[in-house]
Amino acid sequence: MTLEQLRVLQKIVELGSLKAAANALHKTQPALSMAIKKLEQQYNITLLDRSQYRLSLTAQGDIFFRHAQQILLGADQLDSLGHQLAQGNEPILKIAYNPVFAISTITDVLLECQQQFPLTEFQIVTGSRFSALEQIKNHEVDIAISAWFHVFHGIADFITQPLAEFEIVLAVAPKLAKSADIKTTTDLNQYPVINLIQTGFSFDNDRLSLSSSKQQIKTKDIHTLKALLLAGLGTALIPRPLISQELADGSLDLISLSDAETNLSGEVRLIRNAECTLGPVGKFLWNSLKIK
Hints:
Number of strands: 11
Distance between the termini: 54 Å
CATH architecture of the largest domain: 3-Layer(aba) Sandwich
Oligomer: single chain
């Protein structure tokens, strides 16, 4: 069995006659007839019903052809992948993003990138606090999307570009406490606090939290943090867009302190390591995400 034989069968089924298939494939009718005959003889089955004017599949042929289509599709995809790799397109593009960033912000561009490079595998990961920055520093991903502060330039040789803004707020579930009763950091420290686990950077420590409560819960996942917050297990700093619905329906409230800033905002940037060169897929994504 060869791919050529399967393509002949596919074209005959598609067009319904040897003559039309031969014209489409620029081959002679006897050549096509011989290709199908050899395929039938190899497995001792009849693929085509030749009793009617228009050729059609037999019951055996129908089953065989369905599997043949999968093989041909795989062969076409492999051929396309070979051409993409020859052009230097990355087989895998790894993207890490910081929990303060909503991935929905870039899904339209990701879709466009996926359509432009259909055989590239996109790996998108998130983690705790500044994990995206940590992964790009360690060459574990190609592009990072993270909250950005000027001090980060001292971590490694980064190339960055602005992407969006972030806003982090201090929230509590009414089942734990009334937000009006928490007016100072002393009040706040009376309640448990939920935090994201720190990364290995020296600047990333518990001092970034507003609360110094002795009761702490830590997690690597922002959505787990939100679930714990809603359950009333503690207060938490959390990206405002992530809880907009809960703030609207009253299942969460914002806390405002008189002696500390509870609304934190800043810049989200695209980040890549200057030591690494992006391939065509990475460059397409990078350039497509530039702020217009």
